[in-house]
Amino acid sequence: MKTLYLIGMGPGSPEYLTMQAINALKQVNVFFMLEKEGRGKAELLEMRQTILTHYLGNTGYRVVMATSPARAKTVDYQNDVQVWHDEKRALFAQLVADELTDGQIGAFLLWGDPSLYDQTVSLIADLTAHSAGQLEFTIIPGITSIQVLTAKHKIPLNRVGESITITTGRHVETCDPTEINNAVVMLDYNASFQRFTGQNMDVYWGGYLGCADEVLMAGAIDEVRDDLLRIKSQVRDEKGWLMDIYLLRRRTNSAE
What we know:
By secondary structure, the chain is α/β, with parallel strands linked by helices. The protein is 34% helix and 23% strand. The strands form two sheets. A five-stranded parallel sheet has the order 3-2-4-1-5, with helices on both faces.
C-alpha cells in the first residue's frame, strides 16, 4: 500500500502550519512539487522548500519536481478545465508509480486548506478509487487565506443573522451585484470588485497574506477602488504573480 498526504500549508509562512501538519511532514518519504511556468512562480516553490527546511532540515526525505500542466484558455472553459484535470491526474498517477515504493508516504503541500478551491483532492480521490486498493490518502487541514484575511482586518467573517458566500471572480464578473451582501471572492484575476461601485459596499482586501510582502487595503469601494487597482497592478508587475482575496460586504444603516 502506498499513501499520499495532502497537507494544508496555510498561506505561505511556516508559522501557519498546524501541529498536525508538522507531525505529518515528519512521516513523509517523498514530497511532490509542481513547477508552474511564468515569471516569479519559482518563489512559490521556494516557500514550500522553506517550510520543509524549517521543520525537517535538509535530510531524511526526497523532493521530486514535475512540471504542472497548463490550462488552455479557449472559449470552452468547461472543456479546458476537464482536459487540464485529466492531464494532472495522469501526472499524479505517474509520480506515484515511479517515485513511491510500497509502504512509503508521499505528500503534496497545498496552499491554505486542501478542501477550498483546490481540485487536487478530487483528482487524488479518483486516482485512489481506481488503484485496486494499492493507494490511500489522508487530508491534513490547513489555515485558509479567508481566516488570515479576517484576522488581519480584525473583522468577523459573517454578521449576526446573515450568511456568507464563498465564490470566485468568474462568478462575480457575471452575477447581479444586488444579490451580493457578504461574499469572500477568490481567484479574481480581473478585479471584478469594480462592478460593485455605487452599490454601498465595503471591500476588505489582502494580497500575499501571511507572507513577508503582505499588503492590505479596506474601505468603501467607491473610495478605494482606484487605489486598489493601482496597488494590484503594481505588486503583480513587481513579483510576476499575485495571490489575493477579498471580502465584499454591503453596508447596513449602522455601518454607514
